[in-house]
Amino acid sequence: TDLPRSPPAAAEPRHASPAAPRRLREKLRTAARMAGPPARTAPGSRQQVQGGESRAQPASAAPPARETRAPFRFDYERFRRSLRHPVRGGRPGEDPETRARRMKIKEMMKFAWDNYKQYALGKNELRPLTKNGHIGNMFGGLRGATVIDALDTLYIMELEEEFQEAKEWVEKSFDLNVNGEASLFEVNIRYIGGLLATYYLTGEEVFKSKALELGEKLLPAFNTPTGIPRGVINLGRQGTRSLFSPCSGMSWSWGWASAGSSILAEFGTLHLEFLHLSELSGNPVFAEKASNPQPGPLHPPGVMNIRRVLNRVEKPQGLYPNFLSPVTGSWVQHHVSIGGLGDSFYEYLIKSWLMSDKKDSEAKKMYDDALEAIEKHLVKKSAGGLTYIAEWRGGILDHKMGHLACFSGGMIALGAEHAAEERRQRHMELAAEITSTCHESYARSDTKLGPEAFRFDAGSEAMATRLSERYYILRPEVVESYMYLWRLTHDPKYRHWGWEVVKALEKHCRVEAGFSGIRDVYTTTPTHDNMQQSFFLAETLKYLYLLFCEDDVLSLEDWVFNTEAHPLPINHTDFKA
Ligand code: DMJ
């Protein structure tokens, strides 16, 4: 999803996480990491909850993670041996044009990185016109969003020197000791996702330890009556509140979200990363407290619980609305979208199943059912024959697709690949048609870049009809779908379309000191928005590069990409060491 970059200023602290005594929390953590007698509180004791919303539950101890007294250690070498393909590198005998195109994209990445490094290193994003840095308000005092987002792309592209520069910044300057309001979703997909992916690719401990430390800071967001996390979290350590940091570890709903609700694409886009946090730490707390059947204030349930809540609540026509109350577990209003606010929830269902080596049948069923409802109620064909996915507002269709919704071509193709024959064909066709519609939204503009949203009403076909929807901010979703469709069909048109995007980016978005978004795709002399988004380095350039790589570079048999294009490994359950 993609959310307004306004501060959660209007949000009152509706929910306060419990102030767990620091010593007890540390004991619980140690107990979960090490075998040995788990820390226990008195049977039936109740923890005091601030804020009045959370149910007080009997506190029980966190279970030991392993049946051994040795501290848990993830076996990285074994993991590397489990991969079926090399992770990067060109292959001998490839077509020179493909190689040249890939090298061009690598040069774009170097240009984007070098300018960020020169003018904005340590800030979150580069402002390429004014040649300075942007901090923004999504990351709660964390810095270096572009560094973390770029790490795995630099590594994959074999930009060794630049990768070392980024790594050195993480080692020396990436400070997690911050105290500010962050988007749980954004910190998870960009920072946790970027750090995890880089650890898996390189085996460098610094990335793992930073990911785990940051992951723990996100846990208090789950402290709600239902265990559905809130969208905004103060990254100060829970239990360290003082006059100077009164909100440490507290969580809020976004001020703009209906009635204190949590957003489907936010709480639904944690699963992949949180399962890996548990895998790498040996601590079940991120996934769920497996042997703690009654989660409570000191034992907020992990991400697995989110599905339980979703499976309990009734879905209108089988569809998932975008706003859910973390207090009651019911929908707050009926807006359904496969674009912003809904998008990556669906993506994470199918990818959870793939990441589990197709063992997580619950996720697969939720995905299949959701897609069936979407096909039935939201997929439409325009008068001109273009297939699109409309939005749904309490039963009324809004005939609009956001740029964000264009990821769905790739997602549906990925799911189709693993479906039974009849479904496979139907879904592959649907994926190709949606991707083609998204390509039309680019092809029908003067810049050959697509608008933020396009409509199919009042005679319009795949074009923005409102001034406020004509901008392009270097988003990846369309090239993301090209990459999946290319890998799954090898139809050369996807590489052709990807190359058109490269040319358009060079022509309209490349400026003296980096790449910038543009304010209007329907003019050949667009003005720039002065922002090089971190996802341009994490996603747009990575997907373009992969489009011109052999299929075994970050093979889809070994990796799933999180929603920020950070590759996380599939758990090959049949691998014998
Ligand atoms: C990225 O941060 C992620 O792809 C997210 O899922 C949606 N928005 C941006 C890119 O457009």
Automatic annotation (TrEMBL):
Binding residues annotated for Ca(2+), in chain numbering: 563
A GO molecular-function annotation: mannosyl-oligosaccharide 1,2-alpha-mannosidase activity
Catalytic residues of the enzyme: 186, 343, 452, 477
Region (Disordered) residue spans: 1-74
Pathway: Protein modification; protein glycosylation
Top-level taxon in the UniProt lineage: Eukaryota
Topology relative to the membrane: Single-pass type II membrane protein
Coarse class of the protein's main subcellular location: membrane
Biased composition (Low complexity): 1-21, 54-65
Disulphide-bridged cysteine pairs: 406-438
Cofactors required: Ca(2+)
Gene3D superfamilies linked: 1.50.10.10
Any one Gene Ontology cellular component term annotated for this protein: Golgi membrane
Places the protein is found: Endomembrane system
Family: Belongs to the glycosyl hydrolase 47 family.
Entry function: Involved in the maturation of Asn-linked oligosaccharides. Progressively trim alpha-1,2-linked mannose residues from Man(9)GlcNAc(2) to produce Man(5)GlcNAc(2).
The name this protein goes by in its record: alpha-1,2-Mannosidase
Organism encoding this protein: Corvus moneduloides (New Caledonian crow)
